[in-house]
Amino acid sequence: MVTVALGSTLATILLSTDVSWSEGAVALVLLVALQFVVAWTTTRWPATRSALTSAPTLLVLHGEILEEVLGEHRVSPGELRQAVRASGSGDLSQVGAVVLESDGTLSVVPASSLGDASALRDVPGAHT
């Protein structure tokens, strides 16, 4: 999100005659400083991390799509299938888990690589 904001701010500085270079520079410095403060705070105090970022979410477990979770997190079945295909799998039954990560990416764990699922320890619902 910060990258998009920085790009948008830079484009406005370069293309708009209504924004001076100094105003744009202040905006860029402010965005970078805020990003630094958020990153520093979330690494020092775990409670702020949970307030500012979402927890990873289980979308598929042992090849079964958790439909209600897809709706809650606004992930379409097509997006889910696309992530599975991108991982090299053509069969949902061969997928051990799909996790919607806190950064918005979808992680696909093949059933053959699931093992004891210890990598899913911080994912709610993974050990049911």
Order of neighbouring strands in the sheet with most strands: 2-1-3-4
CATH homologous superfamily grouping of the largest domain: bsu07140 like domains
Radius of gyration: 20 Å
The total of beta strands comes to: 4
Count of spatially separate domains: 2
List the uncertain runs.
none
Query: Shape from CA axes?
Result: elongated
Q: Using the coordinates above, name the CATH class of the largest domain.
A: Alpha Beta
Q: Which sequence of SSEs, written as H and E, runs from N to C?
A: HHHEEHHEEH
Overview in brief:
The chain is α+β, with helices and mostly antiparallel strands and 128 residues long. Helix content is 51%, strand content 14%.
Tell me what the structure shows.
By secondary structure, the protein is of the alpha+beta class. It has 2 domains: 2-52, no CATH class; 57-120, bsu07140 like domains (CRO Repressor). 51% of the residues lie in helices and 14% in strands. The protein contains 6 helices and 4 strands, in the order H-H-H-E-E-H-H-E-E-H. It has helices at 2-15, 21-44, 46-52, 67-72, 77-86, 111-114; strands at residues 57-61, 64-65, 95-100, 106-110. The protein has a 4-stranded antiparallel sheet with strand order 2-1-3-4. Helix 1 packs antiparallel against helix 2 (21-44) and helix 2 (21-44) crosses helix 3 (46-52). The two termini are 33 Å apart. It comes from Actinomycetospora lemnae. Its main location: membrane. The chain crosses the membrane at residues 26-43. InterPro entries: DUF421 (IPR007353), UPF0702_alpha/beta_dom_sf (IPR023090).
